[in-house]
Amino acid sequence: MKTFPMGGVHPSENKLSCAKPIEVLPLPEVVTIPLAQHIGAPAVAKVAKGDKVLTGQLIAEAGSFMSANIHSPVSGTVTAVDMVPNGQGLRQMMITIKREGDDWAEGIDRSDALVKECSLSAQEIIAKIKDAGIVGMGGATFPTHVKLAVPPGKKAECVIINGVECEPYLTSDHRTMLEHGEELVVGVTILMKAVGVEKAYIGIENNKPDAIAHLTAIASGYKGIEVVPLKVRYPQGGEKQLIAAVTGRQVPPPPALPIDVGAVVCNASTTVAVYRAVQKSMPLIERVVTVTGKRLKEPKNLLTRMGTPVSALLEAAGGVPEEASKVINGGPMMGRAMVNLASPVTKGCSGITVLSGREAVRREAAQCIKCAKCVSACPMGLEPYYLSKMTQKKGWDALEQQMITSCIECGCCQSTCPSYLPLLDWIRLGKQTVMGIIRARGAAAAPKK
């Protein structure tokens, strides 16, 4: 069974909602849509207070090359374009819309009919994906049109679809593969055409045998698409880990990208969104969100419009249990604790996890015992304890030399530490600071206009 070569851990899977079919969440009365739902510059609002909008209408335009369009998830009236607290309590610019029905913009095909043939050129495909505001829906939120624009001098050799979903608890990709398999595979053919390759792989961990069998049967009718079962091992869904597992190739350290080893990687849910954008002119205004937790009354997979309050999803799953002590945007390994449940679902929100009791409480940190478990667990070959300590000492030059920017923030180091040290928290801070220094240095070195 294929897997990546170093590090990784085996957390309890807790896929409580894997057998729960996708349900459609009722539309909220009010939505708040952040202008930053992607890596890169925030989108620029194209509407103002008092404007009437339709479902699927462009309301914010990509602010730069590394940005993405945003569309209205409902029809109604814009009530504000202002700073609103997000899930972590930080204020960011959002568009607030009061829903007044669900009237759609023209040109969007809302039928369930499968459209297999794509007559568009590669450039036209990428343009439609850009127009639809598609970003990576596995959590990274990298603008998909940027990923598909292969730089001059580089050549794509294969497309890899990430159907691993190795994060504990989350099942939104799993259910999407089962319930929208045909759309996914047609989406793969569109991605192959966009980057000019004849080979694609769909990587799925072998704890999803139903998805492996289902997509293998569908892919047999399409040329060049292979389903690759993978060993269960976290973080198998990391882009570099997935490439290594499927192709055996190692992506060099930053600034190298997957395209440097001939690979273009796309998440399973993103691939379905690509199909809908290209074949149906459907912008990215909804996604499947797993709402889960051991004490939750009814874990579910909910098809949710962007901008819907997280509290509405929790209510649909039976409400937050009294003994719950932590709600996480994402899964327990890479997700972030929430302080504001009125904050909205965004393009990168694949799950909401409710933790209770002992699993929600951090143990008191002790002294490092020099066991090196964090080093053994790191799938990127880094030294987490050293990076954590140098962040505390503000040793930014040393952190850059030790490749802190290679950290994928998977949390393997912190989950294995017998001293319960908050390694990932410090490394995240160090990585953010070093990346800021690198950007500032690049801006200072750029020629003045």
- Please tally the β strands and state the result: 17
How large is the count of helical segments?
A: 13
Report the end-to-end length measured between terminal Cα atoms.
Answer: 54 Å
Helical proportion? 25-40%
The parts where pLDDT drops under 50 for at least 5 residues are none
Q: What is the N-to-C order of secondary-structure elements (H for helix, E for strand)? A: EEEEEEEEHHEHHEHEHEHEEHEEEHHHHH
Q: Could you report the average pLDDT, rounded to the nearest whole number? A: 96
Helix and strand content put the structural class at alpha/beta
Explained architecture:
With 449 residues, this protein is α/β, with parallel strands linked by helices. It is built from 13 helices and 17 strands. The chain has a six-stranded mixed β-sheet with strand order 1-14-13-17-15-16. The protein has a four-stranded antiparallel β-sheet with strand order 2-8-7-4, with no helix packed on it.
